[in-house]
Amino acid sequence: MKHILCLSLGLALIIALCHAQQVDQDSLINVLKDSSLIFKEQGKITKWKDNRLKIGAILRLRDSDEGLAYYRQTAKDIWWEEGYAEKGRIYYVLGYYAGRYENNFESIRAYEKAAENYRKLPDSVLKRMRFDLGSRILTPLANKYTRLGENEKAIAVFEEALPITLSFGNTDRASQILSDWGLALFDVGKLDEASKVVQRGLNTPKLEPETKGFLLSTKAKIELQRKDLKLADKSISSALAILKDPYYIIGAKEVQAILKVEERKLQEAKKIYSFTIRYAENFYEPSTQNRRIAKLEISLADLLIKMNSPLEAIPLTQSALQRVLPNFHPKAFKDQPNSKYFYAENTILEALTSKALALRASGNPQVAVETMALALEMEAFLRNQFLYSSSKLYLTSISRFRHEKMIEWLMEDKPADYFEKVFFYIEKNRAAVLQQQLISKEGKNQKGELGLLSQELSNSEKRISYLQAELIDIELNKQTKKKSPSWQGFNQQLQIHQLRRDSLLTALKEKYPNWYRNTLPDSFASSQQISSLLSPDKHHLLSYFWGKNSLYICWLGPNNEKAIIEDSCLQSDQIKEYFEWITDPILAESKDGDLQEYRKFITWEQDFYHCLIPDEVKSMIQNGKVNELVVIPDGLLNFLNFDLFLTKSANTKAVDYASLPYLMREVPIRYAYSVPSLIFESMAEANKNRQNYVGFAPAYGQVRNSIMETGSKTIQEISNLINGKTNIGQEASLNNFRDKAPEVKVIQFFGHAEADNQKPQNSWMEFSDGKLFAFEIASMDLAADLAILTGCETGNGRLYSGEGVASLASAFRYSGCENILMTQWQVLDQDAHVIGVDFIKNALEMPMPKALQQAKLSYLDNAKGNPFPFFWGSIQYIGKSTPLPSPNTRFPWIWLLLTISSLGVLAAVWNGWRKKDSGA
User: Fold this and answer.
1) What CA–CA distance (Å, rounded) separates 677 from 671?
2) How far, in Å, CA of 406 to CA of 421, rounded?
3) Which residues contact residue 201 at a Cβ distance below 8 angstroms, ignoring those fewer than 6 apart?
């Protein structure tokens, strides 16, 4: 505190001298530089550093980039091992001034380093500097995180900053932290926690009215989200009664308008929006007014569309576009988004979407389709231009709505090429969301070289976006005759980083082709391409797109048969209830003979078949014209096993699960993540010159000893079938898996596994000496033909839009395993053994989807009692439709030599007998 106070006084004195006495700033800077050198030579590092900060402050007064450059250089010059307080102060000031320049990325990194150094201080020193840590470092850091949409990080930092702020008795500052903290929790959907945090802020004594009003406004948002409209009305009314700051009033008025819409008081909501727009026009500066008011106009336009007044909405959307279009350019570091409000470019996108909806409602369908197509092009452009993953993820989270509307309109209008367009939009949305979900991880879920390369790729993309934005700003500054940095210097840096990005992409494509083709596919596959792939073997593709109101089923056949079916008979709650029911191990035993549960199962599976399989496909299946179904599920459909669908009515008088008319009796089924992955699967080459098989059956002690017993039996039988090697008990170790798994065609794990539905990268398989996590598997270079994951929940995890279920199975997929046998829920050892061994026997002679089909049917034919599908229905196959490659024969040359030798011996014996006979 003493150092900060002295520095502040010193800077104030310098500023006063510069202004009042008109001191020559260049001379003063030179004096400070000379004295800095003397201080550094004398080892007076603190004084040297203070002089550097004073130079930076003077340069900042001149509105020069040199000031920020000085802070950067000073941070780089701090190389000594001790001096955490000094380092912390330097980085704190760097973070502050970088934030002033709106270089949020640099500002965050500086604040993070400042906090890191402060935390290393001894308690005796930190006690004196805790105010700086809590108020000047952690709080702005958390707010910057929220501004960038990094709410999880912000929540952790707010939690650390609050007790520090409270320890100084600054209750109003603490309540502001609580309010921002509550908003961060609200934005990630943690409503209960957000409510507690906001209420804690409201309970703070001696609360400033503005802070209280902001807290009440946040509380109203939470209550509105919970559909508690009475409490929300009370909170927002109380907030508006005490707020004086126009910025907070505008935000509260928006909440009030949304509340009125929820209460179906649309006329009142219209009046509130209209008032808020006029109020904002009088408050906002011209530089910020356009975007903010444009968003209000878009909200009012959307309301007018709901009120069946689209002709009134169109001028509002046009006005919004006119407000933001003149300033349209990617801003990179500047004005980054949080999870609710975005910058000008996204406002254009929202205005185009709203305009398309208004045009459609006003009877201009063709222009509406063209406008929505323009919005989707704009979305793709912005996704490529935005700097932060949070920006891109925000786009992908709302992307589905636009794609769904376009699909819905094409289905209504049915132009000549509507199938191709619908198929394009379905797969384009899936590919974009999948790509962004994976790239946004920025290497965090990978280790080793893959993690480093993907992290470098992410950093390069960020730097490119930043440089592109700076170049655009320079051009704008030239127009306004403002002083700007060298355009040529930025352009040279941009070219260097673009070359670096291209080289990283090449390295990823060559070294990790499977990861690359699942995240960064080079091209989009048309329906004709897919149909030609299906044609040789009578395979049929069903690709699903689940919208808000309807489910769209895209069917492609081998002879260019195609159709888009819109269905609204299936509800998401129905699937959730079904999945909880069928995966409950406690109730599984009782369900075996329970007639009521049996009838429930039949009803569900018949409904799924009716809703999810198009009539054309049903007819072709019944006539034997479908040899295989390829399913690309969407959303909650990832949790269904299509094998279990019932194709006919069943006898419900007695429990008989074994004889039910399952869809798998008619046709084998395989799954795929996306159309691009199908294309690449068909082009993938089989592994050569590798070992056939390695199986792992870990030992877990007496508690789960039966797992190892059944597992060792299974992998031994499979090993004998395909000439492989086994690792049983203590040999099934992490190191052995890491060493041997990359060198085989078929990998099998038979042991305990567990899915983490919140953080799927932390799902794990347990070996004899520890756990192997999904994020480690994803970074391995396996490239096996088949991975058999015989453990509980290896295909279960967290559902991500576009990506499907992130699980242990998907981790093996990203590691390079083309085909995967996985389990959706818990599986019993003996059932897994029987189906697994039969599957391998069959797969040596037939395509793997058919091999699994036949293994399951054989299991049912030989099962005792009535095997409830919990015990066998968990197993699914993802991958291509080929048999297992023929196993390499062990020691072929030895067998050849033995055969030749044996023939030689037989020939010699025969020749001896002949001579003996002729001599006689």
Assistant:
1) 11
2) 9
3) 174, 175, 176, 178, 179, 182, 207, 211, 215
CB atoms within 10 A of CB 895: 11
How far is the CA of 120 from the CAs of 67, 117, 125, 155, 756, in angstroms?
28, 5, 10, 22, 33
Cβ pair 827, 794 in contact under 8 A: no
Residue with tokens 């065609």: 745
The token pair that represents 47 in the structure block: 């004084």
DSSP 822: E
Sign of the torsion formed by the C-alpha atoms of 778, 779, 782 and 783 = positive
pLDDT at 436: 54
Q: What is the DSSP code string of 302-314? A: HHHHHTT-HHHHH
In this structure, the strands spanning 798-800 and 804-806 are antiparallel
Alpha-carbon distance of 784 to 804, in angstroms, equals 22
Contact between 201 and 178 under an 8 Å Cβ cutoff? The reply is: yes
* The pLDDT of residue 721 is above 80: yes
- Statement: residue 61 has pLDDT above 80: no
Q: Are 809 and 820 in contact (CB under 8 A)?
A: yes
Q: Distance (Å, rounded) from C-alpha 218 to C-alpha 725?
A: 61
Q: What is the mean pLDDT of residues 714-735?
A: 88
Residue 414, classified by CB atoms within 10 Å of its CB into exposed (0-12), middle (13-18) or buried (19+), is: exposed
CB 508: neighbour CB atoms within 10 A?
A: 20
Given pLDDT bands bounded at 50, 70 and 90, which one contains residue 672?
Answer: confident
* Sole residue written with tokens 């509406």: 368
DSSP letter at 135 equals I
CA-to-CA separations, 578 to 542, 583, 657, in angstroms, rounded: 22, 9, 17
Q: What is the pLDDT of residue 5?
A: 44
